[in-house]
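For concreteness, we quote verbatim a single protein encoded this way:
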Amino acid sequence: MYSREEHIKMRTEFWTRFGQMMKPFTNSEGQKVNWVNYKTGIKNVFFKMDANKQKCSIGIYVTHRDLDLQEVYFQQFIDLKDFLHSVLEEEWTWEFKAKDRNNKTVSRIYIELEGVNLFRQDDQPTIYEFLKPRILKLNEFWEDAKEPFKALED
């Protein structure tokens, strides 16, 4: 269907448009945020968005190589689960020690929208509408919840 180069170009254009769409939004301190590559400020804790031919997703990923420390970080999220779900206004899927596409062990909290295709132009507005409010709500949650994670890094 499409060549590898065309896929890369379409994916790049999709995320560039998303970044442009999100440009007017700032954090609570009025600072610009790179929404596509969100920095949590905590090593091994990431907010990731993805879209492909079958679905799109957004989630929190804990990627610490030390699985005991990964568990400590994930437990901190479990302690904040009610708060997270109240900010998100929905419940997400929780997976402790799952395998990512590179077969690395990660823990994640995520939600997916199936049946959309990044490479189908008609689906892109639906993907944007799915991701936009959720990354904004993750930011809202993180601004109030990141302090206990900073303590774990010390």
